[in-house]
Amino acid sequence: MSGFKIAVLPGDGIGPEVVKQGVKVLETIGKLFHHGFEIQFGLIGGAALDEKGVPLPDETWELCQKADAILLGAVGGPKWDDLPSHMRPEKALLKLREGLKLFANIRPVKFYPNLAFSSPLKENLLKGVDLVIVRELTGGLYFGKPKGRFEENGKVYAVDTMYYTYEEIERIAKVAFELARNRKKKVTSVDKANVLETSRLWREVVQKVASRYPDITLEHMYVDNCAMQLVKNPAQFDVILTENTFGDILSDEAAVITGSIGMLPSASLGEGLKGLYEPIHGSAPDIAGMNIANPLGTILSVALLLRYSLRLEKEANAIEDAVEKVIADGFMTKDLYLNNPSAKKLVSTEEMGDIVV
Ligand code: NAI
Ligand code: MG
Questions:
Q1: Any residues with CB less than 8 A from the CB of 300 and at least 6 apart, and which?
Q2: Is the pTM of this model over 0.90?
């Protein structure tokens, strides 16, 4: 009986609704497999701004520092859009990732046969898609300095800097190659080496890391081509390794493969076992409070939490199998249900959580 500390940060919009389902599933796993999960809730994002005046209160930071793993919903929404950038809800997430040194974002994308009609792509393109995007998370454009808005001689301009060190590229590349070892043994490194100096360094370092993994095939691909290949022939990919901004964009694009952005989980990892787990979607203010959001991305994030931070592979598989079965049985939230002849029953957020349980 192991006492794992899990920090749970529901956040804003649909965050609390989907996280509630994830917690239900986590508690069920605890009962079935006899683990003591110590679940502690914290404020983050707009919810924290409203109550404490800051997007990441000290208590939440301490909670996350002490935790073995963190489960997060989503942050942000129109209510806080006009705040200066250092006060915005999204800043809390960037601070958490940076502060906990979570440099590796892992986003598995898998095709479920019953969701072929939920995707705008043709079924024959989707068959066999099982890929994972490994996105560098604490470098590149989102963090590089100089950054900001400036005025000089009456001219206003803005600067973001794409900055990468050799070590930053090396450690994320290792994550991708290690993952590929237990998969289809192929890494596609995505860059823009024909234009960007950071990409040229990226390519060089990835090539070096690859020489230590002779069992893995490495290919390089330009990001614009990769964007096209993801919809043209997504089954060609195994592990996609890329920098922060490219990975952000490509993973949303890859979400159409599963039929809904509500399906995709993510793990953010550092050197140790501690990780931050969240669905890839945002707070979806347009459907918040309606009990229609798809909680499966969050529930699958709980599976990743069990696998990567707690090393509970059997338990992680149990969740993934349950999700697969629920979809195969035709239970779908609205985002998957519409125009899908494989759908048998339209279910709410709460009902979906219960059915997985
Ligand atoms: P979004 O991901 O929240 O929503 C995009 C579209 O997908 C919307 O139509 C939404 O209804 C739908 N959607 C998202 N999740 C869904 C789910 N689980 N089930 C069914 N439909 C779902 O992205 P958007 O609209 O660009 O951003 C909304 C807010 O979320 C913004 O404030 C943004 O900054 C924030 N955001 C936060 C993120 C995070 O916390 N990690 C990531 C992305 C955005
Ligand atoms: Mg994004």
A1: 108, 263, 264, 265, 279, 319, 320, 323
A2: yes
Structure confidence at residue 3 as a pLDDT band (50, 70, 90): confident
Confidence band, pLDDT 50/70/90 cuts, at residue 22: very high
Neighbouring CB atoms inside 10 A of 340's CB total: 18
Same domain, 82 and 30: yes
Q: What is the structure's pLDDT at 2?
A: 63
Average pLDDT over residues 281-301: 98
Taking 80 as the threshold, does the pLDDT of residue 1 lie above it? no
Pairwise CA distance, residues 210 & 141, whole Å: 25
For residues 224 and 272, membership in a common domain is answered with no
274 shares a domain with 205: no
Decide if 252 is catalytic: yes
Q: Is residue 111 part of a domain?
A: no
Catalytic-residue membership of 160: no
- Residue 151 pLDDT grade (very low, low, confident, very high; cuts 50, 70, 90): very high
Structural domain includes residue 317: yes
What number of CA atoms fall less than 13 Å from residue 104's CA on the CB side? 25
Number of structural domains the chain divides into: 2
- CATH number for the domain that contains residue 240: 3.40.718.10
Determine which one of 24, 91, 110, 192 is catalytic.
Answer: 192
Q: Which of 258, 281, 308 is the last residue of a domain?
A: 258
Q: Which amino acid is at 145?
A: K
Question: 93 and 49 share a domain?
Answer: yes
Residue at 109 is within a domain: no
CB half-sphere exposure, 155, CA atoms < 13 A? 4
Residue 172 has pLDDT above 80, yes or no: yes
Residues with CB under 5 A from ligand 2 (ion): 248
Per the prediction, the chain carries an average pLDDT of 96
Distance 213 CA to ligand 2 centre (A): 30
On the question of pLDDT at 94 being above 60, the answer is yes
Is 251 part of any domain? yes
As for the ipTM of the complex, it is: 0.98
Are 137 and 236 in the same domain? yes
Question: Does residue 75 line the site of ligand 1, with CB under 6 A?
Answer: yes
Rg over alpha carbons for the chain, rounded to the nearest Å, is 20
Which residue range(s) make up the domain with 193? 120-258
Of 50, 66, 122, 224, the active-site residue reads 224
Instruction: For residue 114, give both structure tokens.
Output: 């019953």
